[in-house]
Amino acid sequence: MATMGIVTKQHLLTYMYLLVYITLSSGVILYNKWVLSTLYFNFPFPITLTMIHMAFSGGLAFLLVRVFKVVSPIKMTFNIYATCVVPISAFFSASLWFGNTAYLFISVAFIQMLKALMPVATFLVAVTCGTEKLRCDVFWNMVLVSVGVVISSYGEIQFNVLGTVYQVTGIVAEALRLVLTQVLLQKKGLTLNPITSLYYIAPCSFVFLFIPWYILEKPEMEDPHMQFNFWIFFSNAVCAFALNLSTFLVIGRTGAVTIRVAGVLKDWLLITLSTVLFPESKITGLNIIGYAIALIGVVMYNYLKVRDVRTSQLQSSQDGSPKELQTEKKAVVDMDNREETLWNDSVSDTNFDEEAPLMASSRTSHLGIGRKPA
């Protein structure tokens, strides 16, 4: 009975973490849309909003790493920072910039549908960089996802070319960041959780964003009639940082399958809520059909990759001696969820979430996290 009680308590705690993650992830996206939209709060400066997120999250990460020592920094040399962190930060800032700018032109629902292209972009970039092999089964999954997104786009009533270009460009930049994370950091044996990711990458991303901000947004922000509510931006930045923490907790307690289910629920919930909160955005039956097709392709792709990870782990365990086999098999079981999560972060939309300023986005090495809210 005691064991059953512990299991139930652990399950409830996991579900609570997932609920918090889904709530924060959806909330940050809707909050950003509300702040940026000219129909609501009317602060059409996506680069500025992203810089606020980077400054706030980077500052809190500094306190957690250096002052309160909640997590430990990694051994970072100037060479690693210059050759790894700087290029990753450049693409990260670009993905946030273009992704947030898309909110000015297209609806939240359509943005979520376009994000189904994330695995496609990541796969194509990985194949181009030589980190992934072109396989027939994966290729046809990518075709299925692309067809679904095309159908969804065709059914979009308020289709906007510029907004779509911004969102797709942000997706490509995020895919480049994910592959660079794998190529540059993982090969050096470095892994970062969301907090240390923010600690190293947020300041650098802030610097990269400063140049386009100075050219594109600073002149317009000098308008004396522009409104700037401190509490609005403070609460927005707090939500974005809290999303990173919830992502960290979810990664530590669940596997890839659970995260994917939560991600699907979040996407459908977000699409529904966005049409309720922002009545000007409409979704059609063709939107839904196209997104459902794309989602099937994404789920199938995830299944293939998780299966590959498990096969690789089992083969590694079978290569050991009989004496070591039992220990290695136990290690495979213990590490299975963690490895699946690492993979899931590297290829899904997600993210996991692009909405978190630095999310797990993480993805391959838990860099990032979040995809983006910023």
UniProtKB/TrEMBL annotation:
InterPro entries: Sugar_P_trans_dom (IPR004853), TPT_transporter (IPR050186). It is found in: Membrane. The chain crosses the membrane at residues 12-31, 43-68, 80-98, 104-126, 138-159, 165-185, 197-216, 228-250, 257-278, 284-304. Keywords: Membrane, Transmembrane, Transmembrane helix. This is Sugar phosphate transporter domain-containing protein. Residues 315-374 are annotated as: Disordered. It comes from the Eukaryota. Its main location: membrane. GO terms for cellular component: membrane.
